[in-house]
Design goal:
This protein is of the alpha+beta class. About 20% of the residues lie in helices and about 30% in strands. It is built from three helices and nine strands. The protein has helices at about 10-20, 95-100, 165-180; strands at about 1-5, 25-35, 45, 50, 55-60, 70-75, 80-85, 145-150, 160. The longest helix has 12 residues, at about 10-20. The model has no long low-confidence stretch (mean pLDDT about 95).
């Protein structure tokens, strides 16, 4: 995942931010490019999550821990959707699992059902440079970006940090726009 990251410069700042995370007072917004066309309108996904291995999670309505994410469609493309995801809880892989449960896996998220994005899927007559060369995925990572983080600073004033999309994320969206 690319994007914004909070780092405390001293123990007091760390405690302040840590307590806000614990009390769920930090607002986080992620942007994800997902497969398929989805009209999420501030949709609450309230599905409990549990570990299903060393580094994976799954929806588990019997033994899972409460997990909530709000999804909102930002842009529809021909076969993909740009979604704003606001986790209200902070579980491992929460956004990835919730989107997959909504039949909207994140592009290139092989762990939760997302397929790589290839230019040949949207560009007619697309060929790699050499006939023997196999086409590579357009984006080599999961199409998930931590867009913004909002919390209260030590002085009580609101702090909002935003990270612009990285080059590969922007390029993916440009290709989706161009070919929609």
């Amino acid at each position: 995942t690319s994007g914004v990251l909070a780092i405390a410069k001293n123990p007091e700042a760390y405690r302040n931010l840590s307590m806000q995370f614990q009390r769920r007072q930090v607002q986080k917004v992620y942007h994800a490019v997902v497969e398929g066309l989805h009209e999420f309108n501030q949709q609450l996904v309230d599905l409990p999550l549990a570990r299903s291995g060393k580094s994976t999670m799954r929806v588990d309505k019997n033994h899972g821990v409460r997990s909530e994410t709000i999804l909102h469609t930002l842009q529809l493309y021909k076969m993909h959707t740009l979604v704003a995801c606001s986790p209200k809880t902070g579980r491992m892989h929460q956004i990835r699992v919730h989107l997959a449960a909504c039949k909207a896996p994140i592009v290139s998220d092989g762990l939760y059902g997302g397929k790589p994005f290839y230019l040949s899927a949207v560009k007619r007559k697309y060929r790699t440079g050499k006939f023997t060369e196999e086409e590579q995925p357009f984006m080599k990572r999961i199409a998930l970006h931590a867009f913004s983080l909002e919390f209260q600073g030590l002085n009580g004033q609101p702090v909002k940090a935003e990270a612009p999309w990285f080059k590969d994320f922007r390029a993916l969206l440009a290709q989706l726009e161009k070919n929609s």
